[in-house]
Specification:
heterodimer; A: 297 residues; mainly alpha; B: 315 residues; two-stranded antiparallel ribbon; 13 helices; 2 strands; 74% helix; 1% strand
Chain lengths: 297, 315
């Protein structure tokens, strides 16, 4: 008669132990790279941080005594991501509003949702190739080729699917009772959307959009032949139409340089980029957990 | 939703307000169609730009590996082979690791706090920019794995995949960095689909006396399989298009070799490397390569979405 008590030596229990330890090992392997990577960047990059880093131009490679700073790349990243946001956020939120509030699940909205998913899967370098063909090689922007503006447009293509998706999903979570109440007191459709549904979905939309911006700030591939790179300070509005540096392209260019000083600059830029992206991510995670808790009460 | 709209249509309104409403709706409609316009625009622009090269080389472009701007001879076989071999081999490593991690996160082996910490760690890994991973790969991973590659060549050199003497940067390093990049994708999608498996399936299996792993292998994994498959396909699409980390570590050589221990090329790394300085018919050939990459990733993505739609909500 088999005992009903747990028996260690039963083959099924040994097998269970084996697979359990296997999955523990998998999880360990999965988080090890992140721990190694983040600690390495924090130590290696953090040790390069000086006040001059934020104020100086990078010196051209070859001068291996002093690499200078990353000021133009830092400002460039801010500008290029701002351009991308200015294009992608209104278009994305408008599109999301249409999908969530107006469409009735017909062929058009299904096609758009499908297109959003497909566009999200298009390799980022293809977005760069597209903008290159459309704007850089045609010199359509006042006769200039590579420009910060073109870089921002390329990044906006990558942000657009994220913004539409988060708006669509955020609005769908708003209970219909709110809409009925607003329409019931005589508000029109657009006031209902602008004054009632959008504000109540604001936090989830904002979280998604901010994560999308953080993602775009780290994108490199579309920038290497749209915005290219520049060593010089950004001084005015006109610089939008010329080559513009960015942290991501600086890391790429200087990582491949044989000079130690430039490599160090790449590590410092990585430190700043990773730190800001991770803190945005962690912040939004905390915010998300917090809202979930308050909703349940 | 429909009920709400009819309610609204039958109401009497002042002219201006009605017009604003119509304008608002149509603006939203136009903005949402931007997605379709951009997608079609990308396909058409890349196709027409590659036309010159397509007309000259035809399908020969796909199977020859000459890349000579001086003689105007172009063939992308090295890059296509590199794209396929790096993405498939990296997936082969990632799938067991990612699914194993997902099982660990969804089953209650350890207290919930630990599982959530590990889960968010893996997801944070997805937020690290690929160019930073490339930097790390060049300066930390490459020296770390050098001895291992030499060992691999010495013992398995008779396999064509390992037949060349390992050089500094090579395809295998690109495969390894791709594993790091794909792990979060596969893990988070596998976790979502495992979480969606209804509790009663699990309880039924436990009820008839199945052990924990018997339940996982025979009940939970099959039930979640379609979601996991779709996640794997999305990861495959990502792997084929991944550019920066791969470009920085793969060695960028157009000399064809079966071996993954030699420097190689992928389509995206070729684009990243040459687009800035290309001119003449080289540009058209690069667009042709970009077109091939786009078709590959579109097919994989559409197939993934079809899979999700076809098999979701089965339980």
């Amino acid at each position: 008669m088999n005992s009903l008590y747990y028996q260690k030596r039963l083959s099924r229990n040994i097998g269970d132990k084996f697979f359990t330890s296997l999955s523990v090992i998998c999880a360990l392997i999965a988080i090890l790279p992140l721990i190694f990577l983040v600690t390495y960047i924090l130590i290696k990059g953090g040790s390069q941080i000086t006040p001059e880093l934020f104020t100086l131009e990078p010196n051209p490679p070859g001068d291996d005594l002093d690499a200078g700073g990353i000021n133009p790349a830092l400002i460039g990243t801010l500008i290029i991501t701002t351009i991308a946001s200015i294009i992608a956020i209104p278009v994305g939120i408008g599109g999301g509003i249409y999908l969530a509030e107006y469409s009735k699940g017909g062929a058009f909205s299904r096609f758009i949702r499908f297109g959003v998913n497909v566009l999200a899967g298009v390799p980022s370098i293809i977005a760069g190739v597209f903008i290159y063909a459309l704007i850089v090689s045609t010199k359509i922007l006042f006769g200039s080729m590579y420009s910060g503006l073109a870089g921002g447009m390329a990044l906006s293509i990558l942000m657009l699917p994220t913004v539409i998706k988060t708006t669509d999903e955020g609005l769908k979570l708003v209970p219909n009772e709110l809409r009925y109440a607003s329409l019931g007191v005589g508000a029109s459709m657009y006031t209902t959307i602008l004054k009632v549904t959008l504000p109540s979905a604001f936090r989830s939309i904002a979280t998604g959009v901010v994560l999308g911006i953080a993602r775009a700030a780290g994108e490199t591939a579309p920038l290497i032949f749209t915005a290219l790179f520049s060593y010089y300070y950004i001084t005015g509005f006109g610089d939008l139409f010329y080559e513009m540096g960015s942290l991501a392209v600086l890391i790429y260019n200087f990582a491949l340089e044989p000079y130690d000083a430039q490599n160090k600059l790449a590590w410092a830029a990585s430190f700043i980029l990773v730190l800001s992206i991770l803190s945005v991510n962690i912040f939004s995670r905390i915010l998300g957990a917090f809202t979930e808790k308050t909703k349940r009460v | 939703m429909e009920e709400k709209l009819t309610l609204f249509k039958n109401r009497k309104r002042f002219g201006i307000e009605k017009n604003i409403d119509i304008i608002f709706k149509n603006t939203a409609l136009v903005l949402s169609s931007f997605v379709a316009i951009i997608l079609l625009g990308i396909i058409l622009v890349v196709f027409f730009q590659s036309f010159e090269s397509f007309a000259r080389y035809g399908l020969k472009f796909l199977v020859t590996s000459e890349w000579n701007p001086v003689k105007d001879e172009y063939g992308a076989f090295t890059a296509i082979y590199g794209t396929l071999v790096t993405s498939f081999l990296s997936l082969l490593i990632t799938i067991p690791l990612g699914v194993g991690t997902a099982i660990f996160i969804t089953e209650d082996f350890v207290p919930k706090v630990f599982r959530e910490i590990i889960g968010s760690f893996v997801e944070l890994l997805a937020a690290i920019p690929s160019v930073v991973l490339g930097l790390w790969a060049i300066f930390v991973m490459e020296p770390f794995f050098r001895a291992f590659f030499v060992f691999l060549h010495n013992f398995f050199g008779w396999i064509p995949l390992f037949s060349t003497e390992p050089t500094g940067r090579n395809s295998l390093l690109a495969i390894l960095i791709l594993v790091v990049m794909l792990l979060p994708i596969v893990t988070s999608i596998a976790r979502d689909s495992l979480n969606q498996v209804p509790k009663k399936l699990r309880n039924a299996a436990y009820g008839i006396g199945a052990s924990r792993w018997k339940t996982i292998f025979s009940v939970i994994l099959p039930a979640a399989l379609s979601g996991i498959m779709a996640g794997v396909l999305l990861a495959l699409g990502r792997a084929m298009g991944e550019t920066m980390a791969v470009t920085m570590i793969i060695g960028n050589s157009n000399a064809f070799s079966w071996s993954i221990l030699s420097p190689g090329y992928t389509i995206s790394s070729m684009l990243a490397n040459q687009f800035g300085e290309a001119d003449g018919s080289q540009v058209s050939s690069l667009f042709y390569a970009a077109f091939v990459l786009m078709i590959l990733s579109l097919v994989v993505n559409i197939f993934a979405q079809w899979l999700v739609k076809k098999f979701s909500l089965k339980y």
